[in-house]
Amino acid sequence: MPILTLTTDFGTGDYYVGAMKGVALGIAPDARLIDISHQIPPQDVLAAAFVLRHAAREFPPGTVHLAVVDPGVGTARRPIAVAAADQLWIGPDNGLFSFVLNDARVHHIANKALYNSRPSRTFHGRDIFAPIAAHLCTGLDLAAVGPPVYDPVVLPEITAQKSAQRIAGRIIHIDHFGNLVTNIAAADIEPWGTAVNIRLGSHALAGLSRTYGDVAEDAPLALIGSVELLEISVNGGSAAQRFGLDRRDPIIVEPTTER
Question: Residue 259 — pLDDT band, cuts 50, 70, 90?
Answer without folding.
Answer: very low
